[in-house]
Write a structure and sequence with these properties.
By secondary structure, the protein is an alpha/beta fold. The chain is built from 4 helices and 4 strands.
Amino acid sequence: MNPHPDPHDPRHPYDPRHPYDHHDPHGECRTVRADGELDLTTAPDFTRDLEDVRHGTGRLFLVVDLSRVTFMDGSVLDPLCAAWDDCQERRGWARVVYTRPGIGLVLRAASVDERFPRYATAHDARRGVAAEPLKEYSAAGDLPA
């Protein structure tokens, strides 16, 4: 997991002197990336990354990039919602990037899918361009009949 802004994206370099802008925060946007499985055993590291990136004061814009997460259970919902609450309190936002239907299913089951609409890429999340909804899957992970 990487709780720091992505230094490899030239469109969004981190520059702490850049003024805050609600629609295009550029350098003020921080990113947390997770890989592999997010479950009870990895949730503490994910929680710590989400807390570390929220240091300081002032407006906070956060992209949580789960595009490389292969599995996620409900153990990460509390820290994810705490990050969202913190960003809202600081007049910012938290947006989630994911591509796997299972992540959407977990968010929907917890009734936080409206709080966390899907973004296809971190760049889209920074710009506020939500992705099309994924196909609806049943709790078993199957497409509906």
